[in-house]
Amino acid sequence: MQVIILPSAHEVALYAADRVVDVINTKPDPVLGLATGSTPIALYKELVARYQAKNVSFRRVTSFNLDEYIGITDAHQQSYRAFMEHYLFEQIDIFDENTHVPIADSQDVDVLKRSAQDYEQCIQLAGGIDLQILGIGLNGHIGFNEPTSSFASRTRIKTLSESTVVANKRFFEEGEYQPHLALTMGIGTILESKSVLLMATGKTKAEAVKAMIEGPLSAMCPASALQLHEAATIVLDEEAAGLLELKEYYQWCEQKRQQLHEGSLA
Ligand code: PGA
């Protein structure tokens, strides 16, 4: 794992935007894995700004989102399709048909299961995901892979944990129906991405971040599965890094990485 600790959430977003733009500029057919939630909003704002400044185009990009709620339609303001349209897709030049969010608006379980299988196939047909953006839940989830999700799991229907339902309550009106099921990429699906970049900011994430990086490999912290990925970067602000035991070591590693990049073994 590469652990990068930056002074502020703004710098975390800038770093993530640099990584996304680098993939777009170095791959002929870049495939991005995208995430919803409050953390990546600053990244999407930065990408829109770079697009408006004509520093990047998304015409060659294909995207796959991690997850979608079951039980509300795409038109619902809180659907993850609507989130992506609002914060990113409507504001850049990506082709609509190249944007993928799991299709989860059926009430038929068989249709949803087929949709999950089709999603896996669609990712394969696109050549796999070059860079998967991730956030982390307070309970250590990635996508909607809640604690005890199998590290081998694939895209499937998942029951949300109580803590996730509570954490997401703020997005729904009082008395409004709130989904408790989702279609989510599995941990196995995420681990097949060629590279992953997990963003975490704020002190509420510090415990989950510590469990992910320094805790044991455990289904109780789904994000700890990233310890198995050979190209996983975790980018944190100071607050999210606040409980890390080896914080100074990670910072030293980054200095060394820079020196090695410049050809120095000093
Ligand atoms: P957040 O969500 O970015 O809104 O904190 C992250 C997640 O639950 O994966």
Word description of this protein:
The protein is an alpha/beta fold and 266 residues long. The protein has 8 helices and 10 strands. The protein has a 7-stranded parallel β-sheet, with helices on both faces. The protein has a 3-stranded antiparallel β-sheet with strand order 4-8-7. The longest helix has 18 residues. The model has no long low-confidence stretch (mean pLDDT 97). Bound molecules: 2-phosphoglycolic acid (PGA). The site of 2-phosphoglycolic acid (PGA) has 7 residues, from loops. 2-phosphoglycolic acid binds next to loops.
* N-to-C CA distance: 22 Å
Decide which structural class fits the backbone.
alpha/beta
- The neighbouring-strand order within the major sheet is 1-10-9-6-2-3-5
Beta strand %: 15-25%
Proportion of residues in helical segments: 25-40%
Number of E strands = 10
* Order of H and E elements: EHEHEEHEHEEHEHEHEH
Task: Report the major sheet.
Answer: 7 strands, parallel
Bound molecules: 2-phosphoglycolic acid
Extract low-pLDDT stretches. Answer: none
Note the overall shape: globular
Mean pLDDT: 97
Radius of gyration: 18 Å
Helix count from the secondary structure assignment: 8
Short précis:
It is built from 8 helices and 10 strands. Helix content is 34%, strand content 16%.
Secondary structure blueprint with pairings:
Layout: E1 2-6, H1 9-26, E2 31-34, H2 41-52, E3 62-65, E4 67-70, H3 80-87, E5 99-100, H4 109-125, E6 131-134, E7 156-159, H5 162-168, E8 181-184, H6 187-191, E9 196-200, H7 206-214, E10 232-237, H8 247-261
Parallel strand pairs: 1-10, 2-3, 2-6, 3-5, 6-9, 9-10
Antiparallel strand pairs: 4-8, 7-8
